[in-house]
Amino acid sequence: MDDLTPSDFRALTRALKHCVLLHDAHTFEILWANPAACELLGRPLDELKPLKAPDMSKNARQYSRELGHRWLGQAVEHGVSATEWCYRAKNGEEILTEAIAIRVELATRTAVMVQFRDIAEEKAVRQDLRRTESRLRAFLSGLAEGIVVLDDTHRVLFASESAVRLLGRGLDGADFAAYCCDGPVPEREGRYRFAAPGREPSWYAATCQHIEIESDLRGRMLLFYDITDRVREEEQHRRDTQHVDHLARYNAMGDMAMAIAHEVSQPLAAAYNFVEGARGRLDRDTGSRDESVAWGLDNAVRQIERARRILGSLRAYVGRLEQFARPTDLNAIVRDCAYFIGLRAREHQVDVDFDLTTEPLPVLCEHVLIGQVVMNLAFNAVDEMARCPRPERRVEIVTRRAEDGCAELAVRDRGHSPPPDERIFDGVFTAKANGSGIGLALSHRILTRHGGRIDVQANEPRGAVFRFALPAARHPQDPTRTELS
Q: Less Cβ crowding at N or C end of the chain, within 10 Å?
């Protein structure tokens, strides 16, 4: 470069697009300006030289003479200093610039060379970008939908704030397969269950598409939003529909029950008369009386009487329950059922223990219907224990006064634990091979119509406890007590 002449340097200086001002390092007066600076500021060099900082800077505190001198002084002291400075042109236009001051040792003095360029448009673009970015962040953070971008190995390359809110922190860089509760990572639109490891899963509607943003972001974008409430509503609607269908069948069963009760009552009356006649002849012929035959006839009469009471109660149940409810002792109901429970237990070689309170447990109820509930629960327990080894076959039937004053009965077995299904009393549950599941539903229906409640819990160490409670009667009567068979 030694062959360049002073005229060449002058040509190079005139060609500069950056503006240059040369200040004295001590007085900070303008010594020289290149053509680009003169053009931007709208003044020739002879007009620029006598100007001071307030004459050519924006009238604002951050562009005061003191701050301008401090900036130039830092360049003198440290060799270089940069700042953002707003110049004011001759026509009053304010020009925001990026300026850098550099100390220069000239042959005759020390000077400060200031290079600056107009950045108003560039800064406006940056502000627009920041504004757009902040808006996008606000939109993304307020979205109900979560967005994740996955690479070919299902690693999360990007996760929106809404995705983090839905699935928890730790998404960035995580294997999204660990969040999928029903199989592989979704590849098409559908419903899926997502959850962070160890958290309760929720239902999401998800869509997938491939994205490629230059070389910055490339992969499968998964957009998903929570539809758990919708799925639950649909499931509840399905259950309600099933329940309505069940109630329709249940009402049809009521009509059939009334017809059956009417038709069966006459043969039962005839059978009762025949048995009574046979027993009368047997009593008259005392010389040839066979006690085993007499025992069989007595039991047949008891069974027929029981069937007649059930049919009568069935008519009452299908009609109005309140007309037939009366004060009775829950223990007396259990004692009446003990005979039939014993027959079922002996058939399956199951031991039944009765633990009844010594004092009466008066309740207002329909005697036969509550007896049906007692026998249904007891029969279920006996049938359950029939599948167990003989030494373990034991069922307990217990009555107690509950803390809220209700009369309570519990049937305990040592078989399988009850299922964790809240619909066990909806008429859709049965553990028997040929069961219909209607027994528990009917028991629940009977008890709720009586203002009672029924539930099931696990027995310890195994088995189930079915327990029901009935409100205590206000004016009980003492029913005749019978001994357990």
A: N
CA distance 215 to 224: 25
Partners of 159 in the beta sheet? 148
Span 373-431, pLDDT tens digits: 999 899 999 999 998 998 889 999 999 999 989 999 999 999 888 776 556 776 544 55
pTM score, whole prediction: 0.40
Strand residues in 163-276 grouped as ranges (E) = 190-194, 202-213, 217-226
Go through the domains of the chain in sequence order and give each one's CATH number: 6-118 (3.30.450.20), 125-226 (3.30.450.20), 232-302 (no CATH), 323-470 (3.30.565.10)
CA distance 220 to 161: 18
Residue 452 to residue 446: CA distance in whole angstroms: 9
Q: Cα–Cα distance between 54 and 412 in angstroms, integer?
A: 98
Q: d(Cα 231, Cα 476) in Å, to the nearest integer? A: 49
Q: Are 33 and 51 in contact (CB under 8 A)?
A: no
Q: Tell me the C-alpha to C-alpha distance, in Å, between residue 397 and each of 179, 354, 393, 412.
A: 48, 5, 14, 7
195 burial type by CB count under 10 A (0-12 exposed, 13-18 middle, 19+ buried): middle
From the list 147, 183, 192, the residue with the least C-alpha distance to 166 is 147
